[in-house]
Design brief:
- There is one protein chain.
- With 164 residues, the protein is an all-alpha fold.
- The chain has 8 helices and no strands.
- The radius of gyration is 18 Å and the shape is elongated.
């Protein structure tokens, strides 16, 4: 059970990373005055489309999660160890956690595969957004509002649970 919990946390972190990549790319392309106006006034139709997009994305995320786990294991590292090394790398302490060149090479190869899978997922997410006739910017605005505005979160969660 502990393994599944760690796996879910890892998956969430990866998916959040993908979404944040989209957000940061859009912010770079968005003029500053638009960034300031993160208004939670979205139409009911926009919220419904946002929920539909997220439901369409879920199977993609699950498939990528499976592929990521396989890639990590194929590289000869267990998922918990990969997570430990990834956290150490983010903190700039990778060499403190492992000095084994073979393990670091395996970690690097797994990381490259995961980055490639994340890029593929990002492309697929953007495609789903476009197919649902919503701009990436609007999707990201609703996503940010969902994470920061309790009213938007409540609307999205309600619609999400109604269809599930």
């Amino acid at each position: 059970m502990n393994y599944l919990k760690k796996l879910k946390i890892f998956t969430f972190a990866v998916m959040a990373s993908c979404l944040m990549t989209t957000v940061s790319m859009a912010q770079q392309a968005t003029p500053p005055e638009t960034q300031i106006k993160a208004t939670p006034n979205f139409s009911e139709e926009e919220i419904k489309t946002f929920v539909k997009i997220n439901k369409d994305i879920m199977p993609l995320q699950e498939n990528i999660q499976t592929d990521m786990i396989s890639s990590i294991k194929e590289s000869g590292i267990e998922v918990p160890r990969f997570q430990e090394l990834a956290q150490a790398q983010q903190g700039g302490k990778l060499t403190e956690v492992s000095s084994d060149p073979k393990e670091l090479e395996s970690f690097s190869k797994a990381g490259e595969k995961i980055m490639k899978l994340q890029e593929e997922l990002q492309t697929e997410i953007e495609q789903v957004i476009v197919e649902n006739e919503m701009s990436t910017e609007k999707f990201e605005a609703i996503f940010m509002a969902y994470n920061s505005n309790p009213e938007v979160k409540q609307k999205v969660d309600k619609l999400f649970s109604e269809d599930t």
